[in-house]
Amino acid sequence: MARDYNEEISQLRHTYEQIAAVSDIERLNQQVAQLTQESAAPDLWNDPEAAQAVTSKLSHAQSKIDKLNALHGKLDDLQTLNEMAEEEAITDAESAQMLYAELDAELQKLSTELADLQVKTLLSGEYDERNAVVTIRSGAGGTEAADWAQMLQRMYLRWAERNGYTTKVLDTSYAEEAGIKSTTFEVAAPYAYGTLSVEAGTHRLVRISPFDNQGRRQTSFAAVEVIPLIETTDHIEIPETDLKIDVFRSSGPGGQSVNTTDSAVRMTHLPTGIVVSMQDEKSQIQNRAAALRVLQSRLLQMRREEENAKKKELAGDVKAAWGDQMRSYVLHPYQMVKDLRTGHEVGNVEGVFDGDINGFIEAGIRWRNAQDRETESA
């Protein structure tokens, strides 16, 4: 059966129109006009943080418009290329074959671009556009679990690097023999929180332990927490009386001191028991400010979860939205990484550990969107 390129292009155009409708180009243009006006204000940089927020939002909105316009142009180019190939097929089969080969390649590229953009349009949560703060904690299992937590940290930092995102490690608590007890790092990118939030949960590793002299198979667990980074407009006020602040010397692997002054900060929120440690910055003042920002982010996330739980209670929805164990990474007796929520799985475990996790993230976003729609229709 002959391949129907017109139908394939028509399907891609339909996908584009759905994305454009959700993106609301008219609203984006209005937003760009408003932000352009704000960015031209002579006193804009009197408040550098606010100015940075304005310019960042302007750049992001303009980038979305440019991307949509470019995709529209590529669809038109595909239609033209198909028409040229059809005309050449009548008189010059060899030339037509070359054009169809080019059409095949361009169709595949555009299909991938549209699929990626379609996933991003599903990120419409209140905080999805924010930067993300990721915390990884080793589970029970001593050195084995600590090593697994460090492997996960590397996986996410490599993922960010592959995608051109900026990261900053805020705090790391090293284990005595190998690995880490916990780590917290920030990922700065548009929609970093919305994208990475589907990674929250318990990650399970099955392998022959490199720390076991008898070469036995071990199962390790690590918990991943993802929260949106606080912004100055969120107004999460924390009374000083609600905070307990301890200072200590920052340390490296094996508990080795890496700073001769008490610059690291441990901040405890007394009403909730939330503890945030920060040792990446140079001074105690900077670490205190960074710890407060992460604490505010966690309180914001807690408030959001409480609101969602209340909504589900009122709706009579008693299902748990996320299972504790959300993904398994198996190195023995076979090699496979499988997401237990979406069913997405791959056999290239080394690629996953090297940051190739976009397939899992995209499947997770689609799965979450389907869960949300199911909840809303219940």
TrEMBL record:
Protein modification: Methylated by PrmC. Methylation increases the termination efficiency of RF2.
Main location: cytoplasm
In-chain residues carrying the UniProt-annotated modification N5-methylglutamine: 256
Residue ranges that the Swiss-Prot or TrEMBL entry lists as coiled coil: 68-120
Family: Belongs to the prokaryotic/mitochondrial release factor family.
Protein function: Peptide chain release factor 2 directs the termination of translation in response to the peptide chain termination codons UGA and UAA.
Compartments, as annotated in UniProt: Cytoplasm
Keywords, sorted A to Z: Coiled coil, Cytoplasm, Methylation, Protein biosynthesis
The encoding gene: prfB
InterPro entries (UniProt xref): PCRF, Pep_chain_release_fac_I, Pep_chain_release_fac_I_sf, PrfB
Protein's recorded name: Peptide chain release factor 2
Transmembrane segments: none
Domain of life (superkingdom): Bacteria
Prokaryotic-type class I peptide chain release factors domain: residues covered: 249-265
Pfam families per record: PCRF, RF-1
Keyword rRNA-binding: no
